[in-house]
Amino acid sequence: MTRYGYLGPAGTFTQMALDAWRPSAGQPTEAFGSVDAALAALRGRDIDAAVVPIENSVEGGVSATLDALATGDPLIVTGEVLIPITFVLATRPGVSLGDIRAIGSHSHAWAQVRAWAGATVPSATYVATLSTAAAAADLAAGAAVYEAAVCAPAAAELHGLEVLASDIGDRSGAVTRFVVVSRPEWLPTPTGRDKTTVVLYQRSDRAGGLLELLEQFSARGINMTRLESRPTKESMGSYCFSIDFEGHVRDERVGEALMSLKRVCAEVRFLGSYPAANGQAATIDPLATDASFADARSWLSELRHLGD
Questions:
Q1: pLDDT tens profile 26-60
Q2: 103 & 245 share domain
Q3: In angstroms, how far is CA 263 from the centroid of its own chain?
Q4: pTM of the complete model beyond 0.70
Q5: For the chain, what is the domain count?
Q6: E strand or H helix at 47
Q7: Is the separation of the CB atoms in 62 and 53 below 8 Å?
């Protein structure tokens, strides 16, 4: 039985992602107050897998998750879930829009409703919370310094709050990508619709350094789906690169690329190969198929054994 952890408390979008991922009911779950806490429990074997947010279609990468995966004992992503994001403005019973002086929510959520809030409750200030569900829970318990919370509809319902406004996102169709993280003890089987995640560290900061890394993908017909830089925290201007790309580590073109990256990078942190949530097949150039690489390897072997 798999023990799952997730970014809590109850009522977060992360819990929705966990509910969508779990193949069967009855498996134990535990909410954690931060991404770091959930992944620390995973590394400490208190849980078997953790579900955490990694990317939002409006705000981009979730820095807490990217940084936690890029450092510490190795972990790997074994799956991903896409969750449509819809926010509500929730208050305790009897509170009206005119009563709202401050609004609590997670920073990523606030970034997605900022324009709406500015137009609807322009005098209200923003108060950062650990999560959207925590904002709702504290508000319901009377422990908040704000009069309203931006949260998921499920969180408002769970804590008995009134919804003053629904679907308040500045952009419709927002989606957050969540990843299922495990210890590096197994790999999902290739499906032909896979994604691989790595973090690359340069040997030195020099002209053409990033281009050298990216050429390893381009030369092998590999399509990147996400590229973000993150500070290494070692010195000003020192960055690593978090990258998602199509394919599985067992694909020939991916294996060739990873070997070359290992040669030119100071460090390559492999964060897993797993089925893409959108179910789309990888885009493979005819010259980058497994058969093409196998043919080239056979040709080279014949050359090396001339005269044997």
A1: 788 899 988 999 999 999 999 999 999 999 888 88
A2: no
A3: 27
A4: yes
A5: 3
A6: none
A7: yes
